[in-house]
Amino acid sequence: MPWFPGLEAHFDLSTRSTVPAGALQHIVTDTVLTTPSKKATAAQRSPRDGTFHADQVAAIAAGHFTHDVYSAFLAPLLPLIQERLGVGYALTGGLSIFTQLPSLLNPFIGYLADRVSLRYFIILAPAVSATLFSSLGLTSNYLTLAMLLLAAGVSIAAFHAPAPAMVGQVAGRRVGTGMSIFMAAGELARTVGPLVVVAGVTWFGLEGIWRLAVGGWLVSGLLYLRLRHVSAMPPPTAPTLLAHFWPQARRVFLPLSWLMTGRLFMMAALTTYLPLFMRDVLHTNLWLAAASLTILEGAGFVGALVTGTLSDRLGRKRILLLLFGLAPLLLLAFLFGPLWLTPVSLVLLGLVAISPQPVMLALVQDQFSAHRALANGIYLMLGFLMRAAAVWIVGFLADRFGLHNAYLASGLIALVSIPAVFFLPASGDEA
Fold this sequence. Notes:
This protein is mostly helical. It is 73% helix and 0% strand. It has one domain (49-423): Up-down Bundle (Growth Hormone, Chain: A). The longest helix is centred in the middle third of the chain and has 31 residues, at 242-272.
């Protein structure tokens, strides 16, 4: 056992070289003064050894699950909101656009998260989002609903910009696996969320679902206990200029935006408008409309859990090509198949159409290791803005030509996005 802890950092003590006493005193003093305390180390804990830290990944994923349970309240409430407001599909679905607008903040939040720890954004967001989404039943005014959802969108941005980058750090070399767990938690939340809010409406009425917000506050308290010493800031690295970031961003985000456009049109149809489709096209009740969303998102949970890990082994581009090739075909089966095939089609669509997200997030993390949160913020901003546009366009098409034809158009747009996969930069195992 060495006499002076940390001395090995300066000299190899296995050698018998003679060190002058004055130099030795200087070395010991320097070592004691520059060795961080346990408390400081804990406060800035950020894995640097490539190890997969399962407990930290699980904690962030639990926060993601809770947060997205509440953000999943909106879609199943849209039929009730539409009846209350007396508006068309575009205005009803357009309410979700207000949750997307604050995504303009994502690059700024991501840039900040690359420099300071934003763990309290991750800790507090479940409580804030729970409060805002649980308040949707308290008003019948469109403008008030829009303001509530705009504020909720800020909370969504504050959570989703730093959280995946934090997962990318604590997952070590298994980024795809970490993203699968993180995204699967979100998909599981969107599976559970519709059932939770419909149960809340059944028990308390639309005006009484504010009581459901307590769950978000409890989980934020638990996240504080678990994550308050885990840094959301990347470990120190050699300075990397933003001038080096933008050329790579163009190479990655141009084809990725093309690919995202096709996916997000399908997602706008399949998630935002699915309860309305089930009610108006298939003539089901509110419970069955919510159950259809649960079936879709439940299958998406399984798909998200698998695809990121598979992409670690088989490559990001191969998995994306498979998923984007199958999704439009399965949407056609959903639209034109017999009624008994509807649950099967929803399961297969959930497995294929929802699950590309962890693969795409892992690809972004692969390409921008020095600016992970900034790159993630740009990716999320693009995704949220494109989704907002897609929601409005699908709603407009539904008002003009019917929901069935709007769904068909979204599938065709997804089909023409497939060639974008070939323009994506290769990951390490695909180069």
